[in-house]
Amino acid sequence: DQTLTLTTNRPKPVIHKPSEVMVRVWASSVNPIDVAMSVGYGRGVLDVLQLATDVGVDQMTHDRLPLILGRDFCGEIYRCGHGVRHYRVGQWVYGSLPPFWRTGSHCEFIVADESHLCEKPSNISTVESAAIPYVGLTAWSALQTIGGLNDRNSYNKRALVLGGTGGVGNIAIQLLKSWGAHVTTTCSPDAMQFVMSHTGADECVDYTNDNEMTETLSSGSFDFVLNAASAAAALDESIQSVAKWKAGAKYVTLTTPLLANTDRYGVLFGTGLSALTAIKQTIDGCSQGYSSRWAYYWANPGALREITRAVQSNQIKPIVERVYAFNEIPDAYGRVARGHCRGKAVVELT
């Protein structure tokens, strides 16, 4: 892939703030957003967000170029800023870097804010740990922060998760099951046994069967629907046109037009157009008796701690499709770009 260049002579990054730590990365994973960003997705808004987080003209370019991709990481703390209170050198941690952070995690050393990480779960490997944070926090954002679900109000609620084989989808299913929900998910026919055995989903629906999908969506039996499918944008309109909604149901989608609009129309006009789209979807949902919402990855240290507890109590089990060596990163990107992954593509850097 000509958009990716591997190098072995990059200098170590620099700690710029008291709350930052330097981590030696042992494993990272490849997410769909990494593949999209490798060909320029989100460039407009991400550049603006990055500049807004930098302080001072001299910091506007530090560690930013060339662009290093990657969100998830698991590794060992190599150095701590003088304001770090909760971590120490030599401690094993895992976490994720926001898309607008100044560097990515597909490199041997990264600098992260201490709010981006948590102590590594003791019952899983570094490779498995690297498969969790970004998709886990995205699933948490969709279910709890945006969807309002948690371990106290989800018992016996009926949830539909579109895209059960994906990274966010399988974590969302496991969280919902640990909270006592009844979960239906979608996948291809050949993946049904895999999804049910690895996630604990109660039912699987063949998304390639139009009649079966229409019957599921028009049943009106779901309290919550999460669109975590790789073709989420294409599904949104068709789902909302054929679905019959239970009174008070919530529909949360992970694919929004914000970054695509800002890339195409610029930050100001693209953001305004996205806001109008959100308002229209909200009005349409209210008129049909359900709530339509967008969800994003959110760097939430409290949520990462809760996810860690769930991992350590075996309520969440990471699913890794394949482990790649560092020099095989282009292959990992190619695999994720093709879609229909059954688990995460993880890269070992040591």
UniProtKB/TrEMBL annotation:
SUPFAM superfamilies, per database record: GroES-like, NAD(P)-binding Rossmann-fold domains
SMART domains: PKS_ER (SM00829)
Organism domain of life: Eukaryota
GO cellular component: mitochondrion
Pfam family, one: ADH_zinc_N_2
Record has Transit peptide as a keyword: yes
Entry keyword Mitochondrion: yes
Coiled-coil annotated spans: none
InterPro entries for this protein: ADH-like_N (IPR013154), ER (IPR020843), GroES-like_sf (IPR011032), NAD(P)-bd_dom_sf (IPR036291), YIM1/Zinc_Alcohol_DH_Fams (IPR050700)
Cellular compartment(s): Mitochondrion
Domain Enoyl reductase (ER) positions: 1-347
Keyword vocabulary terms for this entry: Mitochondrion, Oxidoreductase, Transit peptide
An example molecular function term from Gene Ontology annotations: oxidoreductase activity
Family under the similarity heading: Belongs to the zinc-containing alcohol dehydrogenase family. Quinone oxidoreductase subfamily.
Protein name: Enoyl reductase (ER) domain-containing protein
Native organism: Oppiella nova
